[in-house]
Amino acid sequence: MPDTRDQRSRQSKSHGSLFRLIAASPSPMTMKQLSMSLGVSLPTVYQNVSELIERGLVRSCGEQSSSGGRRPNSVGINAGARISLGISLAGDSISSVAVDLQGHTIYSSCIARELPRSADALADLLQEETERFLKATSFSRGLLLGVMIAIPGFIDRESDTIFNSPLAGLSDIPITLLTDGLPVPAYAEAAAVCGGCAEYHTRPSDCNMAYLSIEHEVSGSVFLDGRPYIGNNNRSAEFGHICVEENGKTCACGNRGCLETYCSATRIERDSGLSLDQFFDALGRRSAEEREIWNDYVEHLARGIATIITCFDCEVVIGGRICQFLGPHFDNILLHIGERKLFNSHDYPSVILSKHAQYGIPLGAALMLIEDFISHA
Ligand SMILES: [Zn+2]
């Protein structure tokens, strides 16, 4: 008799939890440990593990004799059984990261180039990048779960379109225009959500976190109780458009005084006439001109972050390409944020720098596919 939908759903959940536990463990787990951790019987664990071994996702790390033949007494993830690729499109580069089932990076690449300003040319570029990865690594494309494309901008899930991505030059473009030509299943997600996923991956699964992404645009993502909170229109956490200066500079969104106009990488490059490397180098040498721009930057960044904390009362992670330069200035930034504490509270949430400065966005994109696979294994 075929399984009912409920049976299949329970089975999938049970497999997913078991597989997640095995995947997350740095060392092999015994059947007894799995049974106790999941609160399910040993026979059920044996049955589910056997199925995962048959599919090549889990390997036996030791066997014992039993009346039914030899059975595994401990198992570990077969990390290379599936891989995924994340590709990030930024205004001036295309970067890729591939990960295995344990989330380990097995490939990374960043190519500086101006992105083409048409969907067709971008689709060709994505195909080229995917093929380049497959050639460079010699992985069988059968192992590749798919490609997640990180788009800097809004994605409309209702219509599956890229609603607006000024940096990629896309507006009202069906996602399939970018993905249909790829040799493997392909998907798209907002870059800030991908960046947040890379960070969130290393945290307890039920924690709350706000991720502030500072690239050439400023955006973000929020994770509440272990899930991304995307809002009613997939536009939550648009931190770049928090007002940090009443009647301030005009923003691309049509409002004035947005965080993005004061704290994007573009702002620094435009006002200083320098690249980010050159700017922070000059700042380190205490150049007065750069110091003035920086003081204004920090002031507005602190206002933006304090607003995020006021709204969400959770840890804030600063990510994106700017964060690789913030280390020497971070204490000063924290000082400015601290001056805005509500009621001078002692339990103010922490603000930290992302550990994934350069590859956070494509890494998070790749991890999203792995997470999804593990959940449904
Ligand atoms: Zn704005």
TrEMBL record:
A Pfam entry, by short name: ROK
Gene Ontology MF term list: DNA binding
Classification via InterPro entries: ATPase_NBD, ROK, Tscrpt_reg_IclR_N, WH-like_DNA-bd_sf, WH_DNA-bd_sf
Record's signal peptide: none
GO BP annotation list: regulation of DNA-templated transcription
Domain called HTH iclR-type: residue spans: 18-59
Superkingdom of the source species: Bacteria
Alphabetized SUPFAM superfamilies for the sequence: Actin-like ATPase domain, Winged helix' DNA-binding domain
Coiled coil: none
Protein family: Belongs to the ROK (NagC/XylR) family.
Protein name (record): ROK family protein
